[in-house]
Every structure is written in structure tokens, then in C-alpha cells.
């Protein structure tokens, strides 16, 4: 799904100025220990599966929806692994956004991954120690999720 309509409606009024948004990310690990990644259409980079909750949508429901929309994989969120603020992002069209992100460790209910929308160029399962390069933010979210801590990680003031 492209930019949600509620965001394009806001952008029609505010232009490209920074917009504070919620975000969700998934660290999906299958029984073989592989992780699910997608190569984003907007940047061409590999990343965790992520997205923006719709207004009123629960974060866990949003990540289930996003993973399915982007990869065709059904998941069950098992725990929150981190709540973080990412750096501001400037998109090719000039829009600027910054995200408060909730990252979930998820268990796959199905494993057949396929590009399922226009947000991804490729999707696939990769060994934890041999996956495509990820940016610093995705790497940190992945490391925290795989650390096995039972409590979420929060940035301390």
C-alpha cells in the first residue's frame, strides 16, 4: 500500500514540513532461525518489514497487516522488543517524517514469502548471520529483538 490517505490528506495542508508519525516494525524469525526481510521500493535498501498504523489501529494489528501486505506471510506478534525514535527521514518527494517505532518479535504462521504489494522490490528469508546489509536503525532493532530479552528496550533520557 502506498502512503496512507490520512497522511496525503495532512500533507495537502502542511506540505513537506516534518511530520511526527507512529511506526511499527517486525522481526520475524522462522523455525530454521532465518529472518524475513524486504527490499524497499522507495530506497532500494533491505530492511525489516515495517509500516504505519492506520488511525485508531492497534500497533500489533498494524504489524500483522503490514507483514501480510508486503510479504504474504501471516504472523503472530509475540512481544514488543523496543520502542524507539528513529532519525528524521527525507523522502524523494521532499516529505520529511520522523517515527516513534514499536518493534515486535513475530512468529510466522505461514512461511511462503512473496512480493505482495508495490512497497517491496524483493522479500525473502535470510540466515541471521548472513543477510543483506541493513541500515543502522534496522540493525539495532534486529539485534535487540534477537537478544532474547523478555522486556522491551527503551532509550533512557
Automatic annotation (TrEMBL):
Signal peptide: none annotated. The keyword Hydrolase applies. InterPro entries: NUDIX_hydrolase-like_dom_sf, NUDIX_hydrolase_CS, NUDIX_hydrolase_dom. Keywords: Hydrolase. Pfam families: NUDIX. Residues 19-149 form the Nudix hydrolase domain. GO terms for molecular function: hydrolase activity. Transmembrane segments: none annotated. The keyword Hydrolase applies. Its cofactor is Mg(2+). This is ADP-ribose pyrophosphatase YjhB, NUDIX family. It comes from Asanoa hainanensis.
